[in-house]
Write a structure and sequence with these properties.
It contains 7 helices and 7 strands; from the N terminus they run αβααβαβαβββαβα. By secondary structure, it is α/β, with parallel strands linked by helices. The chain is globular.
């Protein structure tokens, strides 16, 4: 996280970074690891839970842009589920998902911490949505930084998956 803080400061010095999304495992959100680390760099990030994320998506659908109060957010993989990705229809109302948004949500920078969590996510149904949501955010960002200290363990497919998220135009 120190390196990410330095990256954010360097990128802010070169240009304006107004919208930053950090995606990480839930324990790093509940223990406020990213939040406290970013405060060391005078950055205020808001952790989102599932209901707040879904409300932000709904607000984005209504207003046509991501709510400015959530310009710098931390999101755990655990809330990147089917409801966040495709929405949820109930008898009372339509719940919007990322796929409903036009224009899509845009972030200047997306940081994917512990990126190995999505390396083979499309194989497991629950993790598939974490992968799909992460890919969605990366596809609509100006810049993406993936962090992991865990080596790839199951072969070339894992590496392909991560590289394809970063550069789908090159890693086909």
């Amino acid at each position: 996280t120190i390196e990410a803080g330095l990256i954010i400061k360097e990128l802010e010095a070169r240009s304006e970074l107004e919208n930053i999304l950090i995606i990480c495992p839930k324990p790093l959100v509940t223990e406020k690891k990213w939040e406290s680390e970013m405060k060391r760099f005078d950055e205020e990030f808001i952790p989102l839970d599932g209901s707040v994320l879904r409300q932000a998506i709904s607000d984005t659908d209504r207003d046509g842009e991501w709510p400015s109060r959530y310009n710098k957010v931390i999101v755990p993989y655990s809330i990147l589920d089917n409801r966040a990705y495709t929405g949820e229809d109930t008898k009372k109302q339509k719940g919007f998902g990322l796929l409903d948004l036009d224009p899509p949500v845009h972030f200047d920078l997306v940081i994917v911490d512990e990126a190995h969590h999505i390396r083979n996510g499309s194989m497991d149904k629950d993790k598939a949505f974490a992968y799909k949501c992460t890919k969605y955010f990366c596809d609509h960002a100006d810049a993406v930084v993936m962090l992991t200290a865990t080596p790839l363990q199951t072969g070339d497919d894992d590496l392909f998956t991560l590289l394809n998220v970063l550069r789908p135009d090159i890693v086909i």
